[in-house]
Amino acid sequence: DIEKFQRGKSYVLQVIMNQTSGFWDQGLQFQIQAKFSGSYKKASIVQGLPPAMFNVIMSENKETGEYFLSTNTAPFPDRPIILEVISDNELNLESLGVQPLAIE
After folding, report:
1. Dihedral through CA 23, CA 28, CA 34, CA 39, nearest 10?
2. Which of 45, 55, 50 is CA-nearest to residue 98?
3. How do 10-17 and 81-87 pair as beta strands?
4. How far apart are CA 36 and CA 39, in angstroms?
5. Nearest residue to 94 via CA among 69, 67, 71, 57
6. What does the pLDDT look like over 60-89, one tens digit per residue?
7. Phi, then psi, of 56 in degrees rounded to 5
8. Which residues face 70 on adjacent strands?
9. pLDDT for 10-27, tens place per residue?
């Protein structure tokens, strides 16, 4: 799901990823790769993953709207994972790759 709203003068886009049922195998990598329609100021996971993650690889290009996160920290069970992107202009999600979760 995608939600868009304004917070003050900033535009907010939230990508909401719902987990499928099943278990999290130890050592499994969780990855998000997203491309947005323009530049952004900040992107972060605001729900679904603990604040202290292990084996994190993160890469982003705020100017071109590209975001990547990989970790082997398990998401919280039965809670959606929310990627929040804050920008000066309204954005759209152009592409999204998530593993090993499914988007509903």
Report:
1. 120
2. 45
3. antiparallel
4. 7
5. 67
6. 999 999 999 998 888 887 889 999 999 999
7. -90, 130
8. 31, 57
9. 999 999 998 766 666 667
Q: Is the pLDDT of residue 102 over 50?
A: no
Average per-residue pLDDT for the chain: 89
Token digits of residue 88: 């000066």
Cβ atoms of 34 and 46 within 8 Å: the answer is no
Q: How many residues does the chain have?
A: 104
Comparison of pLDDT for 30 and 82, the residue scoring more:
82
Does the CA dihedral 11-32-50-80 come out positive or negative?
positive
Q: Is 37 helix (H, G, I), strand (E, B) or coil?
A: coil
**Which parts of 37-77 are beta strand (E)?**
42-47, 57-61, 66-71
CB neighbour class for 67 (10 Å; exposed up to 12, middle 13-18, buried from 19)? buried
Backbone angles phi, psi at 57, to 5 degrees: -120, 120
Number of H helices, E strands in the chain: 0, 8
